[in-house]
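Go through this pair.

…
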Amino acid sequence: MWIIYLYIDVVRCNLPGQPINGKIKDYESYNNSLPEGSNITFFCDYGFLLIGENTSTCNSSGEWSTDPAMIECHETKQSDYESACTCVYT
């Protein structure tokens, strides 16, 4: 009887730090790294506007598709929010 063991090297991306004045969605539920194909979503704290892509995917080289260091949250004024979104007042 033969037993064959296969070793599969799963590509993983290290979890980046969270942006200043922002967060990565569900950050606390992730381990230190995520497998290839995983997505992370960035968002900013109230009063800050996201500059850059809001999602990044772990690719086959173990790098994020969007450099997390390029994600920034800039402080905004109320007028910036009104021009950046469709607001519904009730």
